[in-house]
Every structure is written in structure tokens, then in C-alpha cells.
Design brief:
By secondary structure, the protein is an alpha/beta fold. It has three domains: 89 residues, Alpha-Beta Plaits; 89 residues, ACT domain (Alpha-Beta Plaits), CATH 3.30.70; 188 residues, HAD superfamily/HAD-like (Rossmann fold). Helix content is 40%, strand content 27%. The chain has a seven-stranded mixed sheet, with helices on both faces. The longest helix has 17 residues.
């Protein structure tokens, strides 16, 4: 009868080790049931689950492997696996898989300790841990670092909502973003990213900047904040704010456009997405004049926003056409996905305000970016510790993937 054995090899990595080890196992017609390895700072940890075809071959194959590994100056451990244990392990393949992503300026032991406790308390088991961010030097400019690790876990969470609240508390305490997603084929096959504009792709709220030029900044800012917190209907708030801009000279729009600043990571994110064939869109409750400027600058594929009415070179205080509110954003996201031949599971939506929640909930991956507390609690994913390019980690793109595609790391 065949025997099942787990072989663990560790030590300073040696080129050609896998080849030489497999040649030994091949001499005894050994079957490979599973194999995996990790490399940290040139130190190898290799695990091989093997099936030795008959008991008589067990001692010779183990002896040959032991001699070879010791000759390489490495360590090896053999663990017999019963058939019952093996069958239980195989049946675990049917349990759901989740991917947890930790993002921050740096990753600390305390962050991992608290996250892993939540994971274990929810009956989940960590199977793999990989680093998605590039290797960082010890000395770098303060505040510019990016660090990310991805944990693959298996099991059925006790309560997803409670687990999310626990992660939000850790995020607030330790300045780290924690994302968890079901590990499905769609997670690895997103194709469309839809962005809010104001306070998402750009750092400012454009209507507030226009209001400052018009001398009504305080009045408009109060209404904007109430709308973003969900305290007032967005469409009504927009009408109120735009009415205060009546009489503003059209030339001010260009002046404000030149003063706008992209959000950290926005340019790198969109360049990377485009290089991998993603479609991008701006769906904004702001104004199309500024959306089109961003479209030209960043190469965005679609832009939908409100049309600020201008007559005889002056802002009229009204909006032409239907207002792009929360429901309209969700509908536009769905329309673009259908036009591109994509399912909603293949769509990522990114926004910061309450009017973004309908599209964040509709998309396969909804990301609240540096969002208001209400939006962070309601959205499935959130990013606050990093720039917009942190979204690349959520879709499994490593820094080295982007670099290999000719894209800068910053």
C-alpha cells in the first residue's frame, strides 16, 4: 500500500534544488499530491506532499532525500500523513476562500496580530501569505511608502458584518486598510473601473472652489458637507449650491481647472489600468467641464457629469439636463458595463460621498476612498491609508507587475 508523507525543506536557497530533489523522487515513482514554497531574504521554505507507491520504497527514498538535503547544507523534516487526515484535508477544498488585503505606509506585527486574531476568531484558517508591494529600502522619504500583504484564507466566517466592524476598528487604531473579498474568478477578472471625480480623482470639491471665486464659499461648503454625509438629498443640495453661483463669469471655470490637483496615486492607477486593458470612466455629481479636462489629461474612456448652464458667458445658476445623483450614477455604471459587454461582478466603483453608495453597492468591488464615516461603514471596501493606486493591490496587481509593464512605482 502507498504511503503519504509531507516533506519540509528549509535553509539558504540553492539553485537547482527543485530539479535535483525531484530527480530523486522520480527514481522511486513518487507522486506529488501538493507542492508550495516561499522565499524570504534568500531563505527557502519548501513543502512537498508526496505519495510513496509502496512501503518498501519508503526508507530508501527518505534516506536519499535526507542525504541530499544535508549535503546542500539545508534542513529537512518528514511527517507521515494518515489517509484519514489526507481525506479531511481534501474535503476542505470545498470550503469558501477569501482574500484579505492589508494596505498601509508600513505593515507591522501588531497589525497582523490583530487581523489574524479576527480571522481565527471567525473560524477561518490562513493558507497563504504573499507580499504585493515591492521590496522597500530601510531609508526612504517619510510618508511616501506603500506596503501590502495578501492573505488567502479558507472557511465560513461566523459573521461577515461583525468581522467588518472589527476591521474598521483596527484600521482606525493602527492606520492600516483591511479589505476582504470572496476569492472568485471575478476577483481576478475585473475589467471596468468607474470613478467619482471630486475628492476622489481630484483632491478638491469643484463647486466649493467655484463658490470661493464667487464669494459664497461658506454657504456652499456647508451644503456640500451635509450632502456628502447624507443629511440632505443630493439633487436638492446641488440645485441650492448652483443657484448661489448665478452670475459667475465663465472664465472662472478655466481658472479653477488649472488650480485642481490630482489625488495621490490617481495618475499611476489609471496608467496601470490602461496598460492592462481596463476600461475607465468618470461618473460624477460634479461638472462635465472639469470631467472632460481630466479625461483628456488621464485618458479616461467615459465621462458623465452635470452640465453647468452658461448663457452669454455667465453661469445661470441652473443645471442643464438630468442631475447625476446617486441613483443616476448607479444607472450609468450599469449602462457602461452593458455597453462593454461586462457583468457587474467585473466592475469596480470608487467614491467618497453618500451619493456614491448606490454605485459602490452595485459594483462587484465597491471602494470607499478616504470617505466619510457613513460611507466607510456602508461600503464593502475602503482605502484611507494609501493613495488611489492602492486599488491595484485589491485586484491582485503587484508592484513588480506594474514595473514589468514599464510603469513607474511612484
Amino acid at each position: 500500500m502507498s504511503e503519504i508523507m509531507l516533506i519540509n525543506v528549509s535553509g539558504q536557497d540553492k539553485p537547482g534544488l527543485t530539479h535535483s530533489l525531484m530527480e530523486i523522487l522520480a527514481e522511486y515513482n513518487v507522486g506529488i499530491l501538493d507542492i508550495g514554497q516561499a522565499m524570504i531574504h534568500n531563505t527557502l521554505s519548501l513543502g512537498i506532499l508526496v505519495e510513496v507507491p509502496d512501503q518498501e520504497a519508503r526508507s530508501p527514498v527518505l534516506k536519499d532525500v535526507l542525504f541530499h538535503i544535508h549535503h546542500q547544507g539545508m534542513h529537512v523534516r518528514f511527517t507521515p500523513i494518515s489517509r484519514e487526515d489526507y481525506e479531511r484535508w481534501v474535503s476542505g477544498e470545498d470550503e469558501p476562500r477569501y482574500v484579505f488585503t492589508l494596505l498601509g505606509r508600513r505593515i507591522t506585527a501588531e497589525q497582523i496580530a490583530r487581523v489574524s486574531k479576527v480571522i481565527s476568531d471567525n473560524g477561518l484558517n490562513i493558507e497563504d501569505i504573499v507580499r504585493l508591494s515591492r521590496r522597500e529600502p530601510l531609508y526612504k522619504a517619510e510618508g511616501l511608502g506603500r506596503a501590502c500583504i495578501e492573505l488567502t484564507v479558507r472557511g465560513k466566517p461566523v459573521d461577515l458584518d461583525i468581522m467588518k466592524q472589527q476591521f474598521l476598528a483596527i484600521s482606525r487604531d493602527l492606520d492600516v486598510d483591511i479589505s476582504f473579498q470572496a476569492d472568485t474568478v471575478y476577483r481576478r477578472n475585473r475589467r471596468l473601473v468607474v470613478f467619482d471625480m471630486d475628492s476622489t480623482l481630484i483632491q478638491q470639491e469643484v463647486i466649493d472652489e467655484l463658490a470661493k471665486k464667487a464669494g459664497v464659499g461658506d454657504e456652499v461648503s456647508k451644503v456640500t458637507e451635509a450632502a456628502m454625509r447624507g443629511e440632505i438629498d443630493f439633487s436638492e443640495s446641488l440645485r441650492q449650491r448652483v443657484a448661489l453661483l448665478e452670475g459667475l463669469d465663465e472664465s472662472v471655470l478655466q481658472e479653477v481647472a488649472q488650480e485642481l490637483t490630482l489625488t495621490e496615486g490617481a495618475e499611476r492607477l489609471i496608467r496601470t489600468l490602461k496598460s492592462f486593458g481596463y476600461t475607465t470612466a468618470i461618473v460624477s455629481g460634479g461638472f462635465s467641464y472639469f470631467g472632460r479636462r481630466l479625461q483628456e489629461e488621464l485618458g479616461v474612456d467615459y465621462v458623465y457629469a452635470n452640465e453647468l448652464a452658461i448663457r452669454d458667458g455667465k453661469v445661470t445658476g441652473q443645471v442643464d439636463g438630468p442631475i447625476v445623483d446617486g441613483d443616476r450614477k448607479a444607472q450609468l455604471l450599469q449602462d457602461i458595463a452593458e455597453r462593454e459587454g461586462l457583468s457587474l461582478d467585473q466592475v469596480i466603483a470608487v467614491g467618497d460621498g453618500a451619493n456614491d453608495l448606490p454605485m459602490l453597492r452595485l459594483a462587484g468591488l465597491g471602494v470607499a476612498f478616504r470617505a466619510k464615516p457613513l460611507v466607510q461603514r456602508s461600503a464593502r471596501q475602503s482605502i484611507s491609508a494609501l493613495g488611489l493606486d492602492g486599488i491595484l493591490y485589491l485586484i491582485g496587481i503587484k508592484d513588480t507587475d506594474a514595473e514589468a509593464n514599464g510603469l513607474a512605482t511612484q
